Amino acid sequence: MKITNQAISMKLIITIATIAIFSVANSSAQTLYKATNATVSFFSKTPIEDIDGKSETATTLINLEKKDIAFMIQNNSFQFPNKLMQEHFNEKYMESEKYPISNFRGNVQENIDLKVAGVYQVTVNGKLTIHGITLDRTIPGTLTVKEGSILLESNFIVKNSDHKIEIPSLVATKIADELNVKVKATLLPKN
């Protein structure tokens, strides 16, 4: 079998391309942090009834170089102390079959290096999508960067009316328009 210079050149190009792809993948893997068990909870207080929902299955990504943050949560993953609340949340308010996912994508505004260990108070500008409605939001948070992990924590308000989540007048005294949302995630380098 005769091996031509063209065949050798092609093998060399493929080898170099493969090495380059793995180098980029490895360098970007070191800048991407991920959690698949982030906690998202919300609380609504009214004189008649408190509503408390919690999920521990949100997916979170942070790109350290670009300072991008993304969250995604399955709406039907929220658990409630009362099963009837859970049913109403999914069927009547969130319409989880029609709008199965809520998400947020944004960028840290502060000029900080997220590769350096420390505790950073941050604001993230981005787009929050709930119930099929996407809004521009600025959300405050804290990023605690340690060797090998990032702890993300945030506390902010979401208004049902902003996302066209209709509350029937019969139960308007039981469900507040404003929900206090808390997010907590421990992110590890993405392999």
Please describe the structure with a list of short key phrases separated by commas or semicolons:
49% strand; elongated
Summarize the structure.
The chain contains two helices and eight strands.
Q: Can you write the helix and strand succession as a string?
A: HEEEHEEEEE
**Assembly state of the chains shown:** single chain
Biggest sheet descriptor = 8 strands, antiparallel, barrel
Per the principal axes of the C-alpha atoms, what is the gross shape?
A: elongated
Number of helices: 2
Find the count of extended strands (DSSP E, 2+ residues).
8
Mean of pLDDT? 84
CATH secondary-structure class = Mainly Beta
Trace the largest sheet across and list its strands: 1-2-3-4-5-6-7-8
CATH level 4 superfamily: Lipid/polyisoprenoid-binding, YceI-like
User: What share of residues is helical?
Assistant: 10-25%
CATH topology: Lipocalin
Structural class: alpha+beta
| Rg calculated over all Cα atoms | 22 Å
Distance between the termini: 41 Å
Extract low-pLDDT stretches.
6-29
When the domains are counted, the total is 1
CATH architecture name: Beta Barrel
Describe the structure.
It is a single chain. Helices cover 20% and strands 49% of the residues. It is of the alpha+beta class and 191 residues long. The protein has one domain (32-189): Lipocalin, CATH 2.40.128. The chain has an eight-stranded antiparallel β-barrel with strand order 1-2-3-4-5-6-7-8. It is elongated. It starts with a helix and ends with a strand.
Topology:
Layout: H1 5-31, E1 32-45, E2 50-63, E3 68-74, H2 83-93, E4 101-108, E5 118-130, E6 133-146, E7 149-159, E8 178-189
Antiparallel strand pairs: 1-2, 1-8, 2-3, 3-4, 4-5, 5-6, 6-7, 7-8
